[in-house]
Amino acid sequence: MNHTPERLKSRRRFLAAAVMLPVVGAAPIALDRLRTSTPARNDLTLRLTSNDGRHQAFADPLADGATIYAPGGRTESTITVRDQLTDTSQTLRLDRNLEPEAFSPDGQILFAIDHRPAENPVAYRVSSVDISAGVVTETLGPLKVSLVEEMRGSGRQQVWSPLGDQLYTLYIRQYHDHAIDQADGTHDHSEAHATDAFVHVLDVATNWALCVDLPDGFGMGAPGTTALMIDGDGTTITAVDHALGAKVEVRRLPDDPLDPGQFSVTELIPLG
Predict the structure, then answer these.
(1) The pLDDT value given to residue 190
(2) Rounded to the nearest 5 degrees, what angle is found at the Cα of 231, between the Cα atoms of 161 and 177?
(3) Quick one: pLDDT at residue 41?
(4) Is 187 exposed, middle or buried (0-12, 13-18, 19+ CB in 10 A)?
């Protein structure tokens, strides 16, 4: 089985770090942009506010019963980004099915859940929208290496790191192990620990993403039985499964410029 250097590193003991967004060196996709002082459409709804409160994203309203993880089919998305400080707005009309998720600290990048295919979505990735340049690109991994991967599952809960540089989302999905994906998109399940959940890590400060798989059996209960929390110094993210009576600790390891985005994962720990 051939691994990229990034994937080889993800196989270390207790590490389950895998990039799920592809296309190395892909050319940015030009967007049809329109600068306006007010939202281009008055039916857009407020969907996102930056951590500092300065930037807001308005987007198409969700249909009844839809969520940002299951919005239904849509071949075009209209998003207006408003700067509260300068009282200016910019409207983007995108030929994609996008749901705003987070801003970069400087408000120049909008991270969005990119549902594929747009008209009948069955999976999604995280895309980065450069608001001023009007381009959208796939969000790569911490080593800026892409793998052929699309996410499936439903987001349960999100927490921010104390510094606001990383957003963690607990996803529940069908059996799949990110740590053993092949570069061609196939999966070798002979080595896999079947997983029901993963924590998606989005680094909004340096623009990368990865997935950390949780141990077997986590997240098999009803949607309201899981939770995600983070400690005060931001080093330990705890995923709790009340139906299982257990928790998992995902620990953020010290930053390494040559090998960023490393996390360790414990086994299931009984709640006590």
Answers:
(1) 40
(2) 70
(3) 61
(4) middle
- pTM comes to 0.77
Helix, strand, coil percentages, rounded to 5, for the chain: 5, 40, 50
User: What token pair was written down for 39?
Assistant: 């939202």
Query: At 154, which amino acid appears?
Result: S
Q: Are 210 and 141 in contact (CB under 8 A)?
A: yes
CATH classification of 25-139, choosing from 2.40.50.140, 2.40.128.660, 3.40.630.30, 3.30.420.40? 2.40.128.660
Report the alpha-carbon distance of residue 93 to residue 43 in Å, rounded. Answer: 14
List, by residue range, all CATH 2.40.128.660 domains of the chain: 25-139
Tokens 């970069």 identify what position?
104
pLDDT value at residue 258:
79
Nearest residue to 2 (alpha-carbon basis) of 144, 179, 183? 183
Peptide bond before residue 117 is cis, with ω within 30 degrees of 0: yes
Asked if 252 contacts 263 with a C-beta cutoff of 8 angstroms, the reply is yes
- Residues lower than pLDDT 70 in the chain: 1-41, 147-149, 174-195
Query: Structure tokens of 194?
Result: 């079947």
- The residue whose two tokens read 């991994």 is 141
H or E element that contains 6: helix 5-10
pLDDT at 149: 63
Burial of 85 (0-12, 13-18, 19+ CB in 10 A): exposed
pLDDT of residue 199: 94
